[in-house]
Amino acid sequence: MTGLTQTVREIALEQPSSIRVFERFGIDYCCGGRKPLAEACAARDIEVDAVIAALESAAETLAQKGEDWSQASLDSLIGHIVSRHHSYVKSELPRLAMLAQKVVNRHGDTMAELGVIQATFSNLDLELTHHLAKEEQILFPYVVGLDRAQTNANMQASACFGSVANPIAMMTEEHEAAGTLLEQIRQLSSDFTTPVGACPTFHAFYDGLREFELDLHQHIHLENNILFPRAIALEVQKSR
Predict the structure, then answer these.
(1) Percent of the chain beyond pLDDT 90?
(2) What predicted TM-score, i.e. pTM, was given to this entire model?
(3) CB 115 within 8 A of CB 154
(4) Cα–Cα distance measured from residue 67 to residue 79, given in angstroms and rounded to the nearest whole number
(5) N or C: which end of the chain has fewer CB within 10 A?
(6) Which has the closest alpha carbon to 55: 113, 4, 126?
(7) Averaged over 213-223, what is the pLDDT?
(8) Which helix (H) or strand (E) holds 33?
């Protein structure tokens, strides 16, 4: 039974199927996941009983699409993050930027918010591009080394940043910044709602932004709530 005082993050970790429920209700389970369920529902004016019923239904469903990564090796978890989420971000950023330009060219004169959305997305593009590079080139190789050293006494992970908690703190801050930019885009676009009679390109742009936000939430959840705490704990264990 899901408790009202459990944080959204705790529920997401204990019940992977809850992620789709939280996405459906618009409840932030990654950056803002430390709120109790009741508080998170109240903030969005959602009936908490409806969310609990949906969570319990999802838990009882056998055909769950989500995969529980909480027990996977850090090596395999990082492999999944890079191949699934990093690859997605890298392919979607230029596609969405192109769609943004087309929509602004066509509708920007009559919808001033589109230019702001485009500029905000450009900032998000820059933020995430640098962010992914730092993870793939610096943080992730070190964590993989820590993980592999568990089964190979001859291996020793080395780093130029002191404790792994230091780059993790930076990555977490950047996750918050990316989430804020996407929330601004959501508000500017009225929850990605296209105007009546919008062209297919307009629909493709807003649909793409919505899907991008969903994927980024899942991406940040895997890192903030699973990968990062386990990496810090593993480094502490290795230092003893």
Answers:
(1) 62
(2) 0.78
(3) no
(4) 14
(5) C
(6) 4
(7) 94
(8) none
